[in-house]
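re the bet — no i am not wrong, look at it urself. input seq straight from the record:
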Amino acid sequence: MRRSIKLAAVVLSGSLGIASLAACGAKSNDTTASSGSSEGGLKVGMAYDIGGRGDQSFNDSAARGLDKAKTDLGVAVTEADAKTGEAEADKETRLKNLVTAGYNPIIAVGFVYQAAVEKIAKENPNTKFAIIDSASDTQPANVTSLTFSEQEGSYLAGVAAALKSKNKHVGFIGGVQSELIKKFEAGYRAGVKSVDPQMPVEVTYLSTPPDFSGFAAPDKGKEAAQGQIDKKADVIYTAAGSSGNGAIEAVANAGALAIGVDSDQAAQPALAKYKNSIMTSMVKNVDKAVFAYIESAKKGQPFTGVKNFDLKADGVSLATTGGKIDDIKAKLDEATNAIKSGQTAIPTDPSKL
């Protein structure tokens, strides 16, 4: 690790204030005394993953938690966007700017921030950080990991897909072939297998690290979905951020069924014209985790270590908007109860299936 920034450098960069945040894509909501901006209250910074607020999926779920904290807890907030194809140094600069502007805690949305969070947190031990979807044995004590049991919700999505598929052929599209997204794949395929061990599951990844563009490429999502539809898959689950919007479009145009991810995508205004084709969504309640973390920080007792949100803790669930899975509710409830009781263990590695 490089040595910590000299204090003089921090003071000098502090003269940039919010201007430096704006240069890095920040959108400050730190505007009123009631939110704590002028009364020494809690100031929360959020650094988004690529796609940012408006992706109708992962980032939007985090944004809902931030919005709720601003409204219900009266905290001041600012948001900083990432850019597709950015360098690691850009992530570090974004976090440094939030620190310099006085935001504490700072929440990094997505595992792509792991290295940057570790580095900047070590250099700024008095600032609290949280990172969503990542945990490392080497991160310092001022970093909290907010993780989820994605494989459990994805298992239920697989059960639903297998039960609703008319062609007995389903698909999975992952944004980036990473350990995180493999959890979605593993859970989904295990769920399908629990209903029909012989049912084919098409699997397509849109990019491979260090290329993370698969989370923000709707055109690639659309192309991948069409490829699976051409192979007769008629229910397709996409875990790919805003790339999933393209997949949903292709599925809707083909008269097939889509399974959304992270947010209840059938309820998203930007996807309203496709809502009748969105069978369900595997909702990852990032908003609840974000709000809970900010609330703990406001109380002066911020979460530490790894805080995992599983099916039992309502960290993941299946959306029921539109009533398209009402007819299989009994079987989904049975599968849910088996997971919560520990009777069913869900794999996190698809190679183990």
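see?? Confidence is low (pLDDT under 50) at residues 1-26, 28-39. told u. also The CA atoms of residues 149 and 239 lie 14 Å apart. so pay up
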